[in-house]
Amino acid sequence: LSLTKDVARNSAKETSRSLSARAVAIDASMRRGKGPRSSVSRLTSHKGFGGLETRDKAFSRRLVSKTERRQGQIEKVLSICRNKKGSKKKQSPEDLLVESTLRIGAAQLLFLDVMDHAAVKETVDVLRVLSKTIPDAKVKFVNAILRRITRERVQLLDQTSVADNVNPWLMYQLQDQWGAEAATLLVNASMSERATCISVKGSFPKSPEYEFLNRLRESVIDGIHESFPVSTLLSLCSLMISAPPTGPICSWPYYEDGLWWVQDTAASIPALALAQEMSKLGHYESKSVADLCA
Asked: Over 70: is that where the pLDDT of 18 sits?
């Protein structure tokens, strides 16, 4: 059962844009034997993904990535709500769709800032609208599970641990090398997307010959900093953006103007150190540098 054709066929009939985003996320999260193992990879290559608007693409990607990161806790909560462990027998295409819908719905209710009513109703509607082969009893089953998670969210999460999202052998290795507390902190840090660091154009050494460029740099940094509300100005003319805007990076403020580029702060240190050393020998714009890092 593939929803790819159904997504395209029903896109004109859908009254909710977020329903379409959820449908693509659910289809991409279905565990099939072929294709990329990563749900995010399946999402970006999904035929329905390209037809989504920018905001819906971002929402769909959040759904899939959060579901994948928190898979262990989500599966544990769903198992508790079913009052039984997941079956190991071969699942039918309809069963795969139901399971994917439950995971995407649970991710919204447990780990994303989505209104409960929208998370339940619009996730369940994916089954009703995009598949005519799912029995009504299974649709009601999904609805009941998600509503129970809404009511018992705190109690259910208390029965899980962030370590549930990591393979036991890896957790054992982390605890053995770093200790239980540090291992838990490492796993916790991996549960959210890391901040995006950008380097601002005009990051030159502070010296008289670069005085004009440094003044320009400061005004550029101030302007870019104001464009990202949740960002931190770092010491090396870089910005750490903790809550990036939605949409592709090329749509972020000033990107098309070429005023900044994505670069980890640590990666910019060698270039700045080299620039400072070469500036002592005169203007370094005419010099050649062999980049051996790759």
From this structure: no
CA distances from 226 to 230, 241, 251 (A): 9, 11, 16
**Measured in whole angstroms, how far is the alpha carbon of residue 83 from the centre of its chain?**
30
Local confidence band at 93 (pLDDT 50, 70, 90 cut-offs): confident
Residue 87 in tokens:
């079956």
What are the helix and strand counts (H, E) for the chain? Answer: 12, 4
Query: Collapsing DSSP states into helix, strand and coil, what is residue 198?
Result: strand
The whole model's pTM is what?
0.71
| pLDDT number for residue 13 | 45
Contact criterion met (CB below 8 Å) for 241 and 230: yes
Task: Please state, in angstroms and rounded to a whole number, the distance separating the CA atoms of residues 173 and 106.
Answer: 29
Nearest of 26, 97, 98, 11 to residue 59 by alpha carbon:
26
Whether the per-residue pLDDT at 244 is higher than 90: the answer is no
Comparing CA positions, the residue from 145, 70, 158 lying closest to residue 107 is 70
Strand partners, 238: 199
List all residues 6 or more positions away from 11 whose beta carbon is below 8 Å from its beta carbon. 20, 48, 51
